[in-house]
């Protein structure tokens, strides 16, 4: 089995998440080739075949041109799977490749099973397993679903000629609006999940964050319900954080939340369900009602 992995650069830097593609390929026990639109100066630690096009000439983000480059590599490699990260780059390019080759696309893969792939459904409450009916398929993998693996070594680079033209022109990046809280820099984060029950209870979670000298974080349902603003959201569609201490209060541990906080040094989870998935990555799981445990902990800390 062979995979063609499509890595990513941002502002001249190879993204760390590119290594999750190798983690995915190693779970499939697949041979790999990689394609990057980047630069010789920032190559991955990987001793295999690498198709490289120069981002300085064809733009770091230009789905029209990048599609042509990928199709060229596909023709040379005949992979079974063409694999993207499920990022704004991947979800723009992947369907263009699938449509051009008239093959299946499976999006937001979170696990590989025997010949199939698991994807989330019902707002990530359930998983379904799907198989591609075409011999070759395009996949996008969910951030954080597969471990980052550095294969090591230096790639055998094959430079791809830059195609000129296309209907789009890459203009540049625009920084996001400044947020009222920068969780990326916080050393302690206390996050509220749906398990806190109602908006009024956020003050209880905020009180623990304040007592610990940390910031308030939140899972997506808490933000969607407008209990706190989006700047507090942790996860794939929120912020990625790596504090010294992360306290997850009434958070189940869905993959999209874990992707944003699993690099925390120490994770304390409080959940009334002893089998909640957050327990798999937590250093300590306290099985308790969050509204009983958190005020008691805050009182101890504040003393
Ligand atoms: C495309 C996409 C992007 C997403 N992006 C994000 C993202 O960036 N961030 C994010 O967080 N989610 C994101 N999600 C949503 C994600 O899939 C989950 O739905 C979400 O993380 C669940 O939030 P939660 O853990 O707070 O709620 P739930 O999954 O409902 O879990 C609540 C938990 O609280 C516990 N609980 C209930 N009552 C109590 C109590 N009294 N005391 C203690 N524990 C209690 C329950 O046992 C349960 O484990 C995304 C989903 C999709 C499809």
Number of domains: 2
What is the C-alpha radius of gyration, as a whole number of Å?
Answer: 21 Å
List segments where confidence is low: pLDDT < 50 over at least 5 consecutive residues.
none
Overall structural class, as computed from helix and strand content, comes to: alpha/beta
Classify the fold: give the CATH topology of the largest domain: Rossmann fold
**What is the overall shape?**
elongated
Q: Give the DSSP E fraction (strand runs of 2 or more residues).
A: 25-35%
Order of helices and strands: EEEHEEHHEHEEEEEEHEHEHEEH
Number of strands: 16
Sheet with the most strands: spatial strand order: 9-8-7-10-6-1-4-5-11
Number of helices: 8
Could you please describe the fold and organization of this structure?
- It is a single chain.
- With 303 residues, the chain is of the alpha/beta class.
- It folds into two domains: 158 residues, Rossmann fold (3-Layer(aba) Sandwich), CATH 3.40.50; 120 residues, 3-Layer(aba) Sandwich (Rossmann fold).
- The strands form three sheets. A nine-stranded mixed β-sheet has the order 9-8-7-10-6-1-4-5-11, sandwiched between helices.
- Bound molecules: flavin-adenine dinucleotide.
